[in-house]
Amino acid sequence: MEQAAPHADELYTDHLGSVIALKKGKSNDKNILLAAHHPALSGGAYGGRQPLKRHLFPLTEASPGLWLPLPVLGSAYAAFRQNVGTPRDQSFAAYGQLADALQKILQNQGQMVYASAHDYSQQLLAKKESYQLVSGSLLQSEPAANLGGTLFRSSRKGFSRLIYEPDGAVWAEFFSIKNGNVRLRQRVQLYRPACSQVTGTPPNRQ
Questions:
Q1: Quick count: other Cβ atoms within 10 Å of Cβ 158?
Q2: Helices within 68-176 (DSSP H only)
Q3: Strand partners, 122
Q4: Which of 114, 129, 181, 204 has the fewest Cβ atoms surrounding its Cβ within 10 A?
Q5: Distance (Å, rounded) from C-alpha 46 to C-alpha 187?
Q6: Across the chain, how many H-helices and E-strands are there?
Q7: So what's the pLDDT on residue 104?
Q8: CB 168, CB 204: distance < 8 Å
Q9: Cα separation of 145 and 147, whole Å?
Q10: How do 33-35 and 112-116 pair as beta strands?
Q11: What mean pLDDT comes out for the span 89-101?
């Protein structure tokens, strides 16, 4: 089976949507977790939200120690990343097409979680009955913008974990790492058990 590249065409995304719909229709375990490297939506730098540091000190992207102020060049570079982009940016045409197609799949398939990485931040976003998670990075950290539907965001180095409980509850946990110490920063319930009367999160109807 061939792996899809970030420039996967409409035929691939149509097929992916069909596979997810078939999985939901036939499987007894209908909690769908779709995992990939590239986010469908991100408030981080690759999603087009360039940090102030990139406007003022653009050379730090190439080398973290190059704190040489170049505000005009930096703003021009940030504008390029936001509007034209490199193949790693959502503003890049091929990546943007894939991200748009994934967004449509997530909106049309009901309850599911899309977990990704790529950006150097932790993010959890809710869209209708689905969730999008950006797991974080152990090596670098960058801020993330507060997009619509943002439930959690962090610029700390760290990682994330999804927990599927036997009773149907689904949780997302976000950890930070500093000086070798791991700390749980946030725990968010994505879906509650179908029999639970507690409100605030959607019931797991799967």
A1: 22
A2: 71-83, 93-108
A3: 135, 154
A4: 181
A5: 25
A6: 4, 8
A7: 86
A8: yes
A9: 6
A10: parallel
A11: 92
pLDDT digits (tens, 9 = 90+) for 124-179: 999 888 999 999 999 989 999 999 999 999 999 999 999 999 988 999 999 999 99
Residue-by-residue DSSP string for 116-147: E--SSSEEEEEETTEEEEEE--SS--------
Q: How many CB atoms lie within 10 A of CB 202?
A: 18
Q: Which residue has the higher pLDDT, 30 or 155?
A: 155
Rounded mean pLDDT, 64-89: 91
In one-letter notation, the amino acid at residue 152 is F
Distance, in Å, from the CA atom of 117 to the CA atom of 164, rounded to the nearest integer, reads 20
Q: What is the pLDDT of residue 8?
A: 46
Q: Is the dihedral of CA 202, 161, 14, 205 positive or negative?
A: negative
Model pLDDT, residue 198: 64
Mapping DSSP to helix (H, G, I), strand (E, B) and coil, where does residue 187 land?
A: strand
**pTM metric for this prediction:** 0.84
Please give the Cα distance from 121 to 157 (Å, whole number).
Answer: 7
Residue in 146, 142, 138 with CA at minimum distance from that of residue 120: 142
Number of Cβ atoms within 10 Å of the Cβ of 23: 15
pLDDT digits (tens, 9 = 90+) for 103-128: 888 888 778 999 999 999 999 999 88
Whose tokens are 């539907």? That residue is 149
